[in-house]
Structure formats: structure tokens, C-alpha cells
Amino acid sequence: MPRSTRESAMAEPAAATPGRWRAPWSGGRGALLRRPAGIIGVACATLVLATAVLGPACAPFDPLTISGGSLTPPTPVHPMGTDALGRDVLSGVLYGARTSLGVAALATAVALLLGTVVGMAAGYRGGLVDDVLMRLTALFQVLPRFFLVVTVVALLGPGSDRVILIIGLTSWPITARIVRGEVMATRHLDFTHAAEALGATPWHIAWHQILPNVRSTIAVSGGLLFAQILLLDATLGFLGLGTPGMVSWGMMVAQAQGFLRVAWWLALFPGLAITLAVLGVNLLCDVFASPRAAG
């Protein structure tokens, strides 16, 4: 066999090897940071994440205690002003980051886990299993999620555990459908048939052959889902259905609605925090989803 033919034959299996997905930042050329969207997304996400982790330690005051005059505009002592009770807005934004982002992250994890399991089972097994799971997915997808979440939280009472569970249990259908489509496409590739021919179990094939090839799609879906859940949690806080006794961005915006004409800073700064978090996650998801990001 000529040398060129042997090299070509040796290269083909490597190209078909599963689990070789590369994250956008793993390339030698730094694909993630070569695009403006990636740079802005990383900057916003890093700022918001640092606020959630370090915010309570850096807050100048307790966000639930009076630390100044009522409705004081931004000053060197209170860079984001104070609310109607004289509480520091900056401290509220810093403390609220951990509450809002924590609820959104945990609810996203619940939704991603359910969506991935359902999507992989439906796409890999097919047949009756696929039909039953997709009918169940369609049922959850047509439910008015926002009104369902509001109703359940209002009946059971506000609380972070209830909010996380009800949002997570109602946010998985889109992820399940996306994962199902990816699994159905991957299910019939050569490396999957080769694993079956070698006697690999369905669990081994799903975990070691199929999942590594759809995890980029799962990551993008999770990022978009995180942004949606963050907005939903902020809306619950705006309606007074957030976690009692804990500061959140949505709760701060809700408390500011009666003072919009006389205290613009009350809604501006927590609103900007929500905007930066959602913008950062969405921009990162765009970079992940772009074919050029894998360059």
C-alpha cells in the first residue's frame, strides 16, 4: 500500500473518534477571545460571577439595615444611593447577585438534567419510548409556565427551594427536544455502529459515545435556559414571590416601582445587573453555537 494511502487510512478513524468536542476557548488561537461577542460575554459573565462570589464580603453595609438617609442619591458614601428606608442600594445589588444567580443556576441544573435524560432516552431508544416521552414533553411544553410557576409558588408559599424545583421541573422540554434531535443524528454514525458490533451495552454507548458529541449543544441550551430562568426569577421577585428575608435583584426592582419619578437609581442599578447577567450568558451562547468558534 502506498504511503499516502496508509496515512489517509490512519487519519480516518481519528476524525471519527467520539468525544473529541473542543470548547471555543480550547483552541490554540483563543477562538472565544478573538470575537467581540466573546470578549464582551466573558467580561460580563466574569463581572457578574465575581459579584456573586465576592459581593457579600465587599458590601459596605448590611443590605437589610438602615445606613443612611431616605432616598439619598448616589454619593461617595453610597455610590448607588439609598432606598426609601435608608438602606444601601450597592449592598443590596452585591448581596442580591448570590441569591438571584444561585436560584437561576440550580434551576437550570435541574432542567438540564431532566431534559438531557429525556432527550437521550427518546433519541436513542426510539419507538414506543420516543412516542411516550415526546408526548409528555409536548404536554409540559404547552403548559403556561409563567402562570403555573406563579400559582404554585403562591399556593405553597415563597422560598428558594420551591422556586428552584417548580422552575426546573417546568423548563426542561426545549432541552429534551434539542438533545433528542442531536442523539438521533449521532445514533446512526459509524462509531456508534462499531461500538454496537463490539458488544458495548446501550448505557456505555449513550454515556461514552453519544453524550460527548452532544454536550456542546447541551451547554448552549443550558446557557440560554439560564438567562430565561434568571429573568423568570426576577419577575417572581418583582411580584413579591421571591425568597423571603433575602435580597434579590427582582425584589429590589419591585420595591423601586413606587419611586421611579423621584429615585431613578433604585430601579436602574439592579436592572443593569440583570441586563449584564443575561447579556453575558447570551453572548457566550452565541459564540458556543457559532461554527467558527471551534476554529
Overview of the molecule:
The protein is mainly α and 295 residues long. It has a single domain (30-55, 87-294), classed as Orthogonal Bundle (MetI-like fold). 69% of the residues lie in helices and 0% in strands. The protein has helices at 3-16, 36-58, 89-125, 127-142, 145-156, 160-169, 173-186, 190-197, 202-238, 249-256, 265-289. Helix 3 runs antiparallel to helix 9 (202-238). The chain is elongated, with a radius of gyration of 24 Å. The two termini are 33 Å apart. 38% of the residues are buried.
The amount of helix comes to 55-70%
**CATH class category:** Mainly Alpha
Largest sheet: number of strands, sense, barrel closure: none
Give the overall average pLDDT: 81
Q: How much strand content do the residues show? A: under 5%
Q: Kindly name the structural category.
A: mainly alpha
Overall outline: elongated
User: What's the CATH topology label?
Assistant: MetI-like fold
- CATH homologous superfamily, by name? MetI-like
Count of beta strands: 0
CATH architecture: Orthogonal Bundle
What is the tally of helical segments?
Answer: 11
Straight-line N-to-C gap? 33 Å
Low-confidence stretches: 1-29
**Total domain modules:** 1
Give helix and strand order, one letter per element, not per position.
Answer: HHHHHHHHHHH
How would you sum up this structure in a few lines?
This protein is mainly α.
